[in-house]
């Protein structure tokens, strides 16, 4: 599809730009309310003293997520797509046009809340993390094989709620393994902090 | 956009077909795991003795939702879109091609788990219901104004979890009212049954 081809080219340009500035870029996607922003907040709290972080927030509307993360002492940029259901590489490039990238060594990009469309659009990040939540029920991995195949890591969030929801985390991990036996999976609570330091180790941050 | 225009035509044809057979069609959309299927199951349990129900399930992959609803004594059809992030009117028409519509007076269509794209594609249903969940956090209404504007009803699901999540339901209802002062809002638990009979009354079922 031509849209995807053009995006791949734009993503490569982004990747070159990030490499030139020595920046590690992480693209974080997941459905509405799975905890993408809370995860980024948790990571920024632990990293902002030893890394220079920029966070790019993508949503159809509002500055809510950029504002939330900005309160943790990191710089932020908000992209409002209006109608687009996913960030693409061009939008990210445009958002960074007036930014002095030499100021940062880590960029977190929070994609639009959507488990499908963002999987098809590379942003030129080093890693694409898919955040799922135990509150979504047990079938989201089986129902989204393409998304899981294109992920570099799956984060199972809100594990602090698993017991009360009678959620079978092991079954979900097994579903991920069926799609990709070697995919990195992290079980975390962005609220309590459980699993976050192991996740950061795995990201090399 | 031409895609939308062509879809509107297909949706009108669907609407005519449903009207010809005297069928009430309800399009149920919402993000991943908000409880669309559980809501349909709860409604079918209460309706299947006095209505002849068909349920159409839409997902990129699996028959999970059609199988779940089918166990409640209603007929089902599963649409697997493969890559498409929303159902459109043509897909629904094709799915119904071999179905004897004279057998039914109610059709529930469960859209793909996605709070954005399905809002732009009418299926020719009488009503488009948007199901949000208290587990998604407090911002999903503010972030998706177009979706809310295009809805005929908002169902706030999983209210049985609101207390433990310290979720402010009134604030969410207020957010809906800011987009559309007259939009029908129902607070329900598809698990406990709270609010379901009122919802059915409101749907005229
Ligand atoms: N219990 C619990 N709640 C969490 C956790 N992570 C996030 N939440 C809550 O889940 C809700 C959604 O979290 P967000 O961080 O806004 O999720 P998001 O994926 O960024 O949402 P969108 O960007 O709007 O799609 C909020 O009420 C959070 O407080 C967690 O690990 N445990
Ligand atoms: N506590 C509680 N859990 C619910 C409620 N409704 C649904 N659930 C649970 O939430 C999870 C997701 O429910 P589903 O009915 O599969 O949601 P869905 O919107 O159909 O999911 P997809 O079709 O996969 O997008 C399941 O584990 C359900 O048991 C509710 O009212 N209360
Ligand atoms: Mg967010
Ligand atoms: Mg479902
Ligand atoms: Zn899309
Ligand atoms: Zn779409």
Q: Quick summary of this structure?
A:
The structure is a homodimer of 205-residue chains. The first copy, chain A, has a single domain, classed as 3-Layer(aba) Sandwich (Rossmann fold), CATH 3.40.50.300. Chain A contains eight helices and seven strands.
Mind explaining what this structure looks like?
- The structure is a homodimer of 205-residue chains.
- Chain A is α/β, with parallel strands linked by helices and 205 residues long.
- Chain A is 36% helix and 21% strand.
- Chain A starts with a helix and ends with a helix.
- The mean pLDDT of chain A is 97.
- Bound molecules: guanosine-5'-triphosphate (2 copies), magnesium ion (MG) (2 copies) and zinc ion (ZN) (2 copies).
- One magnesium ion binds next to helix 2 of chain B.
- One guanosine-5'-triphosphate sits between chains A (30, 32-38, 65, 113, 157-158, 160-161, 189-191) and B (137, 139-140, 143).
Please list the strands of the largest sheet of chain A in the order they lie side by side.
3-2-4-1-5-6-7
Query: Ligands bound here?
Result: guanosine-5'-triphosphate, magnesium ion, zinc ion
Radius of gyration from the alpha-carbon trace of chain A, in angstroms: 16 Å
Strand content of chain A is 15-25%
Task: Give helix and strand order of chain A, one letter per element, not per position.
Answer: HEHEHEHEEHHEHEH
Instruction: Give the low-pLDDT segments of chain A.
Output: none
Structural class designation of chain A:
alpha/beta
Largest interface: A-B, 29 and 29 residues
CATH class of chain A: Alpha Beta
List the domain count of chain A as a whole number: 1
Query: What oligomeric arrangement do these chains adopt?
Result: homodimer
Distance between the termini of chain A: 35 Å
Using the alpha-carbon principal axes, give the shape of chain A: globular
